[in-house]
Amino acid sequence: MYETQIIDLSQAFDRGIREGAELIRQGELIAFPTETVYGLGANALRVEAVSAIFAAKKRPGDNPLIVHIVDREQAFALAHVTAEADALMDVFWPGPLTIVLPKRDVVPYEVTGGLKSVALRMPDDPAALALILAAGVPIAAPSANASGSPSPTTAQHVYADLQGRIPLILDGGPCAYGVESTVLLLSDRPTILRPGVITPEMIAEVIGPVEIDARALSPALEGESPQSPGVKYRHYAPRASVAIADGEGEALQRTAAAFYDRSIAAGRRCAIFATEQSCSFYGSRNYVIMGNRDNPLSLCRNLFALLRDADDDGFDDIVLEALPPASVGLAYMNRALRAAAFHVVRAEDLGL
Ligand code: TXA
Ligand code: MG
Question: 265: CA distance to ligand 2 center in Å?
Fold first, then answer.
């Protein structure tokens, strides 16, 4: 057991980075902010340190970790960097794009879940970059939540999940994007394994056509071995039962409202995750505003935090609004569908 310390980087940036880097060098785990979600980091080149990540998160050992780096030299040292990858790094790094490449021998198989590839990412966050630089080693880091719960977008979320299991959390405030990086597999057919705020269109502009893994919007089938092992595990799931209201415009709003009314009639506590466009429709029903439908990023930014809040408030049911699954809307729907365990309701399902 640790007495988990939180260092507020807005008050003590240099001390936080120094103490964090020292712990990483000693083989310990620490949580740190990135522009996407908080990460739970360890020295990527030390097997015991990496193994401790899986234990702290209760994460299955075959679900590989992303290695966070601070410069291009580290990428060349860890992976065989192709011309395509190089072009993508020029445009999107530092930033929320993770690139999966053939690994070099220095990367332990414990990091990659036994795979011959390694996922690399250069985060666009001053604290994350300063930490990797000061530690002097690449940092393997999954999202800093307990396995299965929503990814943490504040230091308080990390504390709620991991207090006592890690010595230090660096608090950099709320994350800018609130949704994890795009994961891109670079093989003969470049494939987005996990959609994010770097969209298929943005990637295609640099390297040409890119495929989207079928699992981005549908569950992994029983016994199937997906290209990204992470997709087969239940993800982002709050305790409340979540449904997604599908449809467009007023049909969608009627569906969400009817779902809510049924839940209340059954004696359950329900919350609607509304948008600026729809909230007036819901009237006196209990809703929170996630963001603006024309700006899917605003919904991404709040989704995980609101799911945690709803659990803290003891809600039984949550109903989310569907977005068209394109561009950043694809990233939103990927997370929303997993939070809802793929439970989608349409007007006709409710007899509307
Ligand atoms: O934004 C992010 O990516 C955050 C921050 C902390 O950087 N990290 C993050 O890590 O979301 P994690 O472990 O929660 O998700 C990593 C995803 C998983 O779905 C995993 O299966 C996939 O990346 N992945 C990692 N290495 C892979 C590989 N070699 N091949 C295919 N998929 C890989
Ligand atoms: Mg995760």
Answer: 35
